[in-house]
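User: My collaborator sent over this chain with a note saying "see what the structure looks like." That's all I know about it. Can you take a look?
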Amino acid sequence: QNIDKLFKIYGTAATPADVAAMYEDLMQGLSELSFLSGYCYTQLVDVEQEINGLLTYDRRPK
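Assistant: Without extra context I'll predict from the sequence alone. Here is the result:
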């Protein structure tokens, strides 16, 4: 597994379905790593200085 490819996850999505597909692809890749024993998504919502959460600043789905 090419770990550099796995962790280059920044990008844009045109639709909520695209976001879900990208997240599913990430989870699939992580699940295939035999040395990984845990995973934590640390930013569930957007904040003032970053917009990479799963929800907008006012907690609406993207």
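A starting point for your reply to your collaborator: Residues 16-31 form the longest helix (16 residues).
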